[in-house]
Amino acid sequence: MVAMAKLARESMRHASQALADQDLEAAEGAMTESDALGDIHRRCEDRALQLLARETPVATELRQVLAYIQVGQDLMRMSSLAKSVSKIARQYHPSPTLPAEIVPLVMDMAQAADTMAERVCAMITDGTQELSLDDADDVIDTISAELTDAAKSEAWQYTNCHAVDTALISRFYERFADHCVSIARQLTFIATAER
User: Fold this and answer.
1) Is 45 exposed, middle or buried (CB count within 10 Å of its CB: 0-12, 13-18, 19+)?
2) Which CATH code fits 1-192?
């Protein structure tokens, strides 16, 4: 889980770098990390299923295994979202992916997403309960709504492709943040047995 969390974070960091700098190598790195995370996830799922089938875990262990299966799914989805961001960045290479005035807002989302992913990594690594993710999640939700509204407004002065990609990218960051929140809740459930 620790390795998967780090890969999910790095994948989105590289995807964000690809967006900001038209960095093809960073885009490829995000895709490679996402694929590596998928390989680890498959091994973890197989081990979890074997454990459930052979060991008959008691309530605490069962709660932990089931919660970590869900955490693994969230981490997989996070890396898939990073991969989607990097694919959009790659298709525009070497041209800028987004209009110049949109990039700072997207980078603010990227920074907030990275903060959330960093906290998730700490929770998984240290076993700490839910660190506050609300501040970073609120930043992402606010910017996402702002970008989506701008992209569909009549005042939008860029291409339709840029409007679609702006809306998609903002949605990808928003979903990434939602998965971080879901992981924090699962980890709290492991520790307290409360939802």
Assistant:
1) middle
2) 1.20.58.220
